[in-house]
Design brief:
mainly beta, 7-stranded mixed sheet, elongated
């Protein structure tokens, strides 16, 4: 079923032994529009720390009551690796979190690397993981190929696979103030430095 991410902000994250906190944000992979992490504000029980929780840890959410049960304990979360959610999340941080919880890695390396003889200490290379904040993208403008259309009001997710299927765009006066449901597959590019989403269609096509 389709869910508005806007309405899910503030939802309760319920651990097996108590409440963990509330949904602060979602991090999605810009290349596939799939939610990879829930950013959880833990609240006063853990000094208001923000932590990452994978959808792989979630049981069946009660969307109507806005409660997402997860197969984690408060102690697990308390001892989890630190991740600065205000900064881009590096692959190394993702690996640390994934290994700590035992979550499956969604990324892969292709083609497989051939075995090599290591004679020196390996160099750790930071990798852009293409993770983006849903909250941030909801402040972006939306452009057709030939003009600016409006701004993003919401993102719509399929709760079966955590895939973001649609953008909800407020159009202002050019389309009688109505909102448009735009498929994410129509997005040709996202200009992060300019905070805008560019579609592959013209104004007339839309």
């Amino acid at each position: 079923m389709l869910r508005s991410l806007n309405t899910l902000f503030g939802s309760v994250i319920q651990a097996v032994d108590g409440e963990l906190g509330h949904v602060h944000d979602f991090l999605f992979d810009e290349r596939g529009w799939t939610v990879r992490y829930i950013v959880v504000e833990t609240g006063s029980w853990f000094s208001s720390r923000q932590v990452l929780v994978s959808p792989a840890a979630a049981s069946q959410p009660d969307w109507e009551r806005r409660v997402v049960p997860v197969s984690l304990t408060q102690e697990q979360v308390r001892n989890s690796p630190d991740v600065d959610t205000e900064q881009p999340v590096s692959r190394q941080q993702e690996i640390a979190v994934s290994e700590y919880y035992g979550w499956p890695a969604y990324w892969s390396i292709e083609p497989p690397l051939a075995p090599v003889l290591v004679t020196e200490r390996p160099v750790v290379v930071e990798v852009d993981t293409h993770l983006r904040s849903a909250r941030e993208v909801m402040t972006y403008s939306v452009d057709a190929t030939d003009r600016e259309m409006g701004h993003i009001d919401d993102l719509i997710m399929d709760d079966a696979n955590w895939f973001i299927r649609y953008l909800v765009a407020g159009t202002g006066s050019w389309f009688r103030g109505q909102k448009l449901l735009l498929a994410t597959r129509w997005v040709s590019s996202i200009v992060w430095a300019e905070s805008r989403v560019v579609l592959a269609q013209s104004h007339d096509q839309l």
